[in-house]
Design a protein that fits this description.
alpha/beta; 14% strand; globular; binds cobalt (II) ion
């Protein structure tokens, strides 16, 4: 790195000014900087199993607060991935111990979309739909945090994006569920609810 830019580390040590907060899965194959080809200092990162955003998770909420209020990121990216082990475990419903309490949130999403999921015969396709639906739920959860709500109320430019990454082909797919304000949040809630009934993808 210093061969290319002798001041790289000196400049980086002075400050970080990322425009993006990445909320992704802990899966070792889904590394934020690598996937979006961003250098150190360009993306603030929170990862956990199956990229969940829960309203009582002080770890995740603290990351969001720091990113939005101090770093003033312009985008929050919730990035799930197809074939997510957490989503598979939630769908299979077998006991794995403590982690089942964490995966419970994905099972709630699966229950809310039971008919759509059951209509898909192929298990990996079913998992992948739940991976997408999970991203949708987490985008809504981010939009509903007091942190994001207050940012929008004071007119701060902040977009919440939902992406999904393909382990098999390295492609990122934008699920086209971005939220730029309260109206978008309302529309996405309606869209997901109607999708549950019609069988359409997100
Ligand atoms: Co995963």
């Amino acid at each position: 790195m210093t061969n290319e830019d002798p001041h790289f580390f000196a400049d980086l040590a002075d400050q970080q000014a990322p425009e993006y907060l990445w909320i992704g899965c802990s899966d070792s194959r889904v590394s934020a900087n690598t996937i979006v080809d961003l250098a150190p200092g360009e993306v603030f990162v929170h990862r956990n199993i199956a990229n969940l955003v829960n309203h009582t998770d002080m770890n995740c909420l603290s990351v969001i607060q720091f990113a939005v209020e101090v770093l003033r990121v312009k985008h929050i990216i919730v990035c799930g991935h197809y074939g997510c082990g957490g989503v598979i475990a939630a769908l299979e419903g077998q006991r794995h111990g403590l982690i089942d309490n964490w995966l419970r949130h994905i099972q709630d999403t699966a229950n809310q979309n039971e008919q759509r999921l059951a209509a898909i015969g192929d298990m990996s396709e079913r998992v992948n739909l739940l991976c997408e639906l999970n991203v949708g739920e987490q985008v809504i959860n981010v939009g509903e945090t007091t942190i994001v709500q207050e940012a929008w109320e004071r007119g701060q430019e902040l977009t919440v994006n939902g992406w999904i990454y393909g382990l098999k082909d390295g492609h990122i797919r934008d699920l086209d569920i971005s939220l730029r304000g309260e109206d978008d949040l309302h529309r996405l809630r309606t869209r997901i609810l109607s999708g549950r009934e019609s069988g359409a993808l997100i």
